[in-house]
Amino acid sequence: MEDKKYIVSVKDVSMVFNLATEKVDSLKEYVLKLLKRELMMQKFFALQDINLNIESGDAVALIGVNGSGKSTLLKVIAGVMHPTTGSVKVRGSIAPMIELGAGFDMELTARENVFLNGAVLGHDRKFMEEHFKSIIDFAELWDFVDVPVKNYSSGMVARLGFAIATEIKADVLIVDEVLAVGDFRFQEKCKKRMEEMMSGGTTLLFVSHSTDQVKELCNKAVWLKKGRMQMFGEVNEVCACYEADV
Amino acid sequence: MEKIREKFAFGYLFNYMPLIRELVQRDLKVKYRRSFLGYLWSLLNPLMMMCIMSYIFSEIFQSTIPNFPLYLICGQTLWAFFSESTSMAMHSVVQSGALIKKVYIPKFIFPVSRVLSSFVTMSFSLLAILIVMLFTRATVYWTILLFWVPLAFLFVFSCGMGLVLSALSTYFRDITHLYGVLTLAWMYMTPIFYDPAILPETVRGTLQWNPIYHFITFFRELILFGQIPAGHVWAICIGSSAAMLLVGMLVFKKLQRNFILYI
After folding, report:
1. What range defines the domain where residue B22 resides?
2. Residue A2 falls inside a structural domain
3. What is the ipTM of this complex?
4. In B, which residues are within 8 Å of A124 by CB distance?
5. Number of domains chain A is built from
């Protein structure tokens, strides 16, 4: 057992996608590809030998160009994806990932989604009713509470997602590029909320393409390049190296 | 946390009770959304089906089964539950993609909650059986109180089947198309609207391998004939439902890891 002080420890994690099987959706194709021996080819390392220890209370930014494995790493940490090799340990609760355009049952209304998402985190109806008002307050969606989420704009979906995920205090909060949508005012509000959570001891994992945002919010940074970790350390140093490289 | 990911963890069922309740409620809500009669359909539907089918089979095909309407609705209710719950469970993992991609949840919750919500609607349909009993002035035996026993077997069996189907269909969507045909064949192989005695000797042998036949027979024995089935019937029912659940859990456990890549 390693040191207990790390809230997230990622050990020798590699994530291999099989590009050839990605596209196989039917039995016929599968058999055909199996016969042609095309199945096990085209390996793609989305992540390779990642070792990362995050201390409790840190705010860690993941930076890197598109396709460098940032989102994959977040998903592995969140437990949504299972690494091909290696292991991830998280000591504490994880808030639902906040990412663009995902996470809701589009047929249901905002109200129903709040309760569903709450239940996913193991909270019962009574508990969620107590928090319902402040969630919708924060998302500023009172006019649309009973409208199916499929009719929302992308900014509204992002607001709702952020409001639900940050309402209940979790030990780890994972934010994937969500601040890109939503207007300036809402971005400020989100930043404030994240800072509040961090001062309460929540560990933040944050992906953004804006190094300014990263420097403002985070104290540490991980730089990923083609699935490999280039650098992990103090935020300004890593950002400087990253910017020099790009 | 790390332990949760590794284990299949039926023990965590308890932690996720609110989620299961929420999912079941959602299914029921979506099912009867925008309909005036709502839940009443769960009662009306089997009654109407029974009327049509008992007319066809007793008048046109001259069925000789005593109290055919009751015989029919018993079989039909159980079969409808099995077929609805398993095909709903089959789509459950794919349809819950949005949630699965966002937060870690033990994924078996999705098929199991579908089977559960189907079970809830089926319990409304049980009222239809009572209504038919009343109308046909059927004798009420005390054994009716044990009605939940075959239903429990069927529930466990359907869970196992739902787990297998949802896991396989995530990888191969063909399964969803194939299953429709399979259930049709399976339905005709199950004595829902006919007496197994009319089957030729060779076919009757295969009936013994059909667990649904045993569940339905169990149920009918209790309700129509006031008899508690013999020990070997219990053994078959317990054995087949437990085996199906076990197979379902194993298949699901093995395949669930990479679901995320296919939804």
Report:
1. 2-261
2. no
3. 0.73
4. 17-18, 21
5. 1
